[in-house]
């Protein structure tokens, strides 16, 4: 049986070159490459926090309180003598974790709703009016309201931000679905007896994947920012869990004496959000064939 | 003892099919009273200009009229299944017809460029199709896919199977479409202008391929086209459609030798080989003046406004499809007059 072997060999060969081509196109712009590196570093630090960080994120040493950045505490210490660098690394876990959870949840729900609304014209009116109603509310206010009602916890922040960002995803997926469902290959699939379910989940979903991917990176950035904002306002994660937002919230009253308490978590937020945005831009430019030619 | 019926039912028999589209300005009937027959192992061509209702007829057979606006509002579409029983596709329901689509009835389209999913490889698409209708595991299905690609004369099928549609030429893509359609051994192949988008040499190859597959697999072919040259090459019998009606049905040699309906005659006169030299010595291809009448219109013959032989009686009453010879029917009250 030589045939199946040669198929798998050649198909994996094609996959390798396709991935390489993808990365080559994505990183043609150097800024996108730098953004991806920064993001990778932040994720890497967050994942390996317990092994990388020199101190405990909650270990208090009153004798070391409010120390400025030094060789032993690169980013200084806070009002309880906790190492700021350690807390930023651990804070990254919570902030990125919440952001990632929001992306997964809002992408899943938004994709399902968008596909349904785009494919079944009878559902379109109902789903889209609901989405319009949600989008007419200011994001952060809606999130604050939800967290205030549900109580402050990481889970509720994810829930609130999912509710805030799902409508955006729904709109994007719906509009892409509207285009793809009219393409001849969808009808061709139907003439071949492919079920509606499979047409939606395979033929249409694969073809609307790139706008979904681009949206995912932007929503990741928004969610990281929004989580920080909510936590700063006290309507997010409880203050005892280190996130970039809670660190700035706690540090602001010492900001005149110990600027590093707000500076470094702030920088972390900016770096994470900016690199996600840049990566999203890069993906969008690369996946849009019209822009790709211009580049 | 089994009694052999006097006449075997044909593979596909459409009886006075009527399709209605609901529009904002009222109901439109793009197809009314279409009778059509496809015998097993033979090719029936459905000919007509754009807007004559050819494609709507084929979509009705496939159960793919655009919902919720289009529906079959009358008639029957009798299809003889592999098991030997006859089902009425007009009343069998969506689920019933879906099990036949791609399995016993397959269809190929005009646009090979866009009829394949751009993000799936050729092999994946055929494999999906095969696994849908035959209980095969992944590697057997892939082997079947490669077999199908070889069947439609695609060279280097093993490697082609891993390629995406954009890597293939138009002719190749139409071959892939045919491979997809053939992958479950359909009994009826509906080909909706499959060669229109291809250049002439590729067109001849695709026609030869369809011919070969029809002979080898004994399937019936309903070939929809506006190209009479193609009809002469491939069809056994021909039905000419005009404004949603069949105006003439006959065997292929009969229709070219003795077209009885003025529209059929006019169509044949439009063929480039029949072009006459004009006053300036250049050959001029004839055309039929006017355009296809809208589906909602006058009581008389639909072709009357464009007909060179029209008489007063033509506008008054709607002609019926009457037999004028063996397997030859015409919808014209003046067919017998010179």
Overall pLDDT confidence of chain A: 85
* SS-based class of chain A: mainly alpha
Q: List SSEs of chain B in N-to-C order.
A: EEEHEEHEHHHHEHEHEEHHEEHEE
Gyration radius of chain A, rounded: 23 Å
Q: How many helices of chain B?
A: 11
Spatial shape of chain A: elongated
Q: What is the β-strand count of chain B?
A: 14
The helix tally of chain A amounts to 13
Strand share of the residues of chain B? 15-25%
- As a percent range, the share of strand residues of chain A is under 5%
Alpha-carbon distance between the termini of chain B? 52 Å
Overall mean pLDDT score of chain B?
A: 86
Can you tell me the residue ranges of chain A where pLDDT is under 50 for at least 5 consecutive residues?
1-12
**Looking at this structure, what is the CATH superfamily of the domain at 96-295 in chain A?**
MetI-like
CATH topology of the domain at 96-295 in chain A: MetI-like fold
Spatial strand arrangement across the major sheet of chain B: 6-7-8-3-9-10-14-13
Shape of chain B: globular
Low-confidence stretches of chain B: 1-6
Q: What CATH architecture of the largest domain in chain B do you see?
A: 3-Layer(aba) Sandwich
Structure, described:
- The complex is a heterodimer of chains A (295) and B (338).
- Chain A has 295 residues and is mostly helical.
- Chain A has helices spanning 3-26, 30-47, 49-52, 84-119, 121-135, 139-150, 154-180, 184-191, 196-207, 209-232, 244-251, 260-287, 289-294.
- Chain B has 338 residues and is α/β, with parallel strands linked by helices.
- Chain B folds into two domains: 12-104 and 186-330, 3-Layer(aba) Sandwich (Rossmann fold); 118-185, no CATH class.
- Chain B has helices spanning 54-62, 94-100, 122-133, 138-151, 157-160, 170-182, 200-217, 228-234, 252-257, 262-269, 312-316, and strands at 12-23, 26-38, 43-47, 70-80, 86-88, 105-108, 188-192, 220-225, 237-242, 245-251, 276-277, 283-284, 322-325, 328-330.
- The radius of gyration of chain B is 21 Å and the shape is globular.
- Chain A binds chain B through residues 3-4, 6-7, 10-11, 14, 183-185, 187-195, 198, 202-203, 206-207, 209, and chain B through 62, 64, 98-103, 106-107, 109, 111, 114-121, 123, 128-129, 132-133, 139, 142-143, 146, 158-159, 161-163, 177, 180-181.
């Amino acid at each position: 049986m030589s045939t199946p072997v040669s198929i798998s060999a050649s198909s994996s060969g094609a996959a390798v070159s396709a991935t390489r081509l993808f990365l080559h196109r994505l990183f043609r712009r150097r800024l996108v490459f730098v953004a991806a590196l920064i993001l990778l570093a932040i994720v890497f630090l967050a994942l390996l926090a317990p092994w990388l960080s020199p101190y405990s994120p909650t270990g208090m040493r009153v004798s070391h309180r409010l120390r400025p950045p030094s060789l032993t505490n690169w980013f200084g210490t806070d009002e309880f003598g906790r190492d700021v660098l350690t807390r930023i690394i651990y804070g990254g876990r919570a902030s990125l974790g919440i952001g990632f959870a929001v992306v997964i949840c809002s992408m899943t729900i938004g994709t399902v709703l968008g596909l349904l609304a785009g494919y079944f014209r009878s559902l379109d009116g109902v789903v889209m009016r609901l989405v319009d109603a949600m989008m007419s509310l200011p994001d952060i206010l809606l999130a604050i309201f939800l967290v205030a009602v549900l109580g402050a916890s990481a889970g509720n922040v994810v829930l609130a931000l999912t509710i805030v960002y799902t409508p955006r995803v729904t709109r994007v997926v719906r509009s892409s679905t509207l285009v793809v469902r009219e393409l001849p290959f969808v009808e061709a699939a139907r003439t071949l007896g492919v079920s509606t379910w499979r047409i939606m989940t395979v033929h249409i979903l694969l073809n609307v994947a790139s706008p979904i991917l681009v949206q995912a990176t932007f929503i990741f950035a928004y969610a990281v920012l929004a989580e920080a904002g909510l936590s700063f306002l006290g309507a997010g994660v409880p203050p005892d869990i280190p996130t970039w937002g809670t660190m700035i919230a706690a540090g602001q009253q010492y900001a005149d004496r110990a600027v590093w308490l707000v500076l470094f978590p702030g920088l972390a937020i900016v770096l994470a959000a900016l690199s996600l945005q840049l990566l999203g831009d890069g993906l969008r430019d690369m996946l849009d064939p019209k822009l790709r030619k211009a580049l | 003892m089994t009694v052999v019926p006097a006449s075997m039912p044909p593979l596909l028999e459409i009886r006075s099919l009527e399709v209605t589209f609901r529009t904002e300005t009222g109901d439109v009937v793009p197809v009314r009273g279409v009778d059509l027959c496809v015998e097993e192992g033979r090719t029936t061509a459905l000919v007509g200009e754009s807007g004559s209702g050819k494609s709507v007829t084929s979509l009705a057979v496939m159960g793919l009229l655009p919902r919720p606006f289009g529906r079959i509002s009358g008639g029957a579409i009798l299809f003889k299944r592999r098991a030997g029983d006859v089902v009425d596709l007009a009343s069998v329901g969506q689920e019933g017809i879906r099990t036949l689509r791609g399995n016993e009835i397959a269809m190929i389209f005009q646009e090979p460029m866009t009829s394949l999913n751009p993000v799936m490889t050729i092999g994946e698409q055929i494999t999906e199709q095969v696994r849908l209708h035959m209980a095969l595991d992944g590697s057997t299905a892939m082997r079947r896919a490669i077999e199908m690609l070889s069947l439609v004369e695609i060279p280097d099928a093993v490697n082609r199977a891993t390629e995406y549609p954009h890597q293939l030429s138009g002719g190749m893509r139409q071959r892939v479409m045919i491979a997809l359609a053939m992958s479950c051994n359909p009994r009826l192949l509906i080909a909706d202008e499959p060669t229109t988008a291809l250049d002439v040499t590729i067109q001849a190859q695709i026609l030869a391929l369809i011919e070969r597959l029809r002979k080898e697999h004994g399937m019936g072919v309903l070939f929809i086209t506006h190209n009479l040259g193609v009809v002469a090459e491939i069809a056994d019998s021909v039905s000419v459609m005009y404004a949603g009606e069949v105006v003439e049905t006959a065997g292929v040699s009969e229709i070219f030798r003795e077209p009885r309906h003025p529209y059929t005659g006019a169509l044949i006169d439009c063929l480039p080989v029949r072009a006459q030299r004009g006053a300036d010595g250049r050959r001029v291809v004839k055309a039929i003046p006017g355009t296809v009448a809208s589906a909602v219109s006058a009581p008389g013959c639909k072709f009357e406004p464009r007909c060179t032989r029209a008489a007063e009686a033509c506008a008054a009453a709607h002609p019926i499809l009457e037999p004028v010879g063996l397997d030859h029917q015409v919808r014209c009250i003046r067919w017998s007059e010179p």
